[in-house]
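In response to a reviewer's request, we include the raw inputs and outputs for one of the modeled complexes. The two entities were modeled together in a single run.
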Amino acid sequence: MRRQIPLALVFIFGVFMIFQYFVPHESSEWIYEFLLDWIYIIGIFALALGIWSLIRVSVAKIKARKANWGYPIITIAGLFLMILFGFTGYRDGSLGFHFMTAEGLSNPMFRNFFDYILIPIQSTMFALLAFFIASAAYRAFRARNVLASLLLVAALVVMLRFNPYMGPIGPYVADAASWLLNVPNLAAKRAIIIGIGLGMVATALKIILGIERGYMGKG
Amino acid sequence: MKHKSLVILLFIFCAFTLSAAQEDAAPVDTVQVDSILPPAPVSMLTAKDGENDHGHSITLRWELSADDGAGQNSVLSYEIFRWVPFFMDTLQSIQDSLEQTEAYIAELRTFLPRAEKRLKEYRKRKKPKLVIVIFVDSTQFYEDTIAASKRLLPEYEEQLKQLRQWRKQAIDEIPQAHTSYPEQGEWRKVGTALSGQANFKDVGVKERKSHDYMADHTDYYYRVDAVTADPAIRASSEIVGPVQSYGQLFNTGRIPVFVAVLVFCLLTILFVTRARRGAELYVRPLAGIEAVDDAIGRATEMGKPILYVLGLGTAADIGTIASFTILGRVAKRVAEYQTKLIVPCYDPIVMTVAQETVKAAYLDAGRPDDYYEDIVYFVTQSQFAYVAAVNGTMLRELPATNMYMGVFFAESLILAETGALAGSIQIAGTDQVAQLPFFIVACDYTLIGEELYAASAYLGREPILLGSLKAQDYAKAAVIILAALGLLAASLDWTAFINLFSVTS
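The model returned the following structure tokens for the whole complex.
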């Protein structure tokens, strides 16, 4: 029974979602939107579970004095400080705890932590991508065989397209780069996209029919 | 002398520039709008329910005015009018009153607890015996205001109840009100079409509370005015109506998709049935999948953990669902080999499902005691904070194998490059085309697009799952044939054949 009910639910809602795509009627749209709302509701409850998981893992690391156990302390402190600042704020000149309103979002400490700690850290992580692209490109473009050499030439042509000092050969390089992007590159991309589309339909069908049960923890 | 001639030259130049500017400006001032003759009206105006939609819309089509792009060439735009009964204004005023009353009630409900708190504070204060500074006692003011608010609140609530009832009744009466045409109503502009445009879709709103609400099964009347540069000079078309809007039960614009899905489903069921009966199905080997077992074995030998990243997708993404299946298989092998598994999650729902998947896999492997909940844990829902946490885990734990399966975005290369620096064997799989090059460059094996979905069938080697892969292969063959036919049809201008595959939203 523990398996039959989820499988039946998956079948019913899966079939509904297929028909919903072909039925534009208002009632069908209403049910669809109602079901989508449930994702948000489930998400909110799941977030509580997620936070609990984070706290448990961090506390376990601190208790066991595992390597770098200072990091979980910062994680837990950050979590609770942001919650505290997010729910406290000034109203009518007095500091108070506001659970149902958005006063906390204008709390200067909340804003400062967000603007001057979180955002710069995230920007730093994103900026690392530039260096990683360079190291990945170096590895990819090493001309070890014919295919790698072809890749190197194609990449050079595409990169040189943006070079303003190409002189008279500039337009030819630009044409060659456009051809590379619009013909072989796009053809390969479309082939992958068609494969992904068919794979998605097949996987969805397997899930709806109960053939694929891996997501339920049963292969 | 030299300066004098320069000044004269400058004067002449200024005078010339000014006169030229005046000449340029002159035609604007002398536009003769009163010389425009009334244009020819649009003809053959038709109105019908909007196709393949949820209702609440009417599509209008017409033949352009003879003076649009030809004749006097005086038509600048078309204004579309719908006949609206005055009853709709009554409905609107009910709606406005209702919103205002709701706002009053919300305001009072916010004010009352604050005022009561403040009153309590004032009552606690002691009056100074000797009044040296100005002392304002607001107790009386707050008492009066609270009493008035408490008296008003039930009155407003009763009013709100009444207004809601009136609105419900009024909405039900909309179709009836439209039958009074042409009495008790007026023409109102619902949109504008530019010259040269011969159609317009009057799209209303389906929410009954909205002021743009357009009721279905109601008689609507339309006319289209051809408008010139002078808005007063225009020509009205004949009136068209009554026309009603209603929602369709089937989107005929998606018939080709429906047929394709049906054929593909039949193919899948056919091959799955054949597989169940024991037919031998050959599927080409995938290097990335075959490397999974070796990677788990390597981790066991090295005594190091396996890091499994489910990506940034939600539990509703097919890529993530496929990843759950692979995670289940990997967790089962990991449990058998008694290796350590680490699964940091970005989404809490994904975490919950992944925990169940891993738990069931340990149970299947006959090692339920080895399972503990912290194998799968939640990190954060912030993209780069998640990347920082996973990268930190990689560099601290130095896993023997990293597996990235699911939906990835900009973090793909940061994760994969860090993994490569940590010296791990890396297997990736994603259906995000833009991220594939990064994984191909930085990982040892990459499952490209659909291979991610196929991975579970390869790992399990179950005939039923392999059957669906066969169906996919046949569908791909069909797509290749149709693409070749499409190329031919486009070259030879076989419009009828091309239209067979046309899909509208």
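As requested, we also summarize the result in words. The two ends of chain A are 17 Å apart (CA to CA). Chain A touches chain B through 67 residues (CB under 8 Å).
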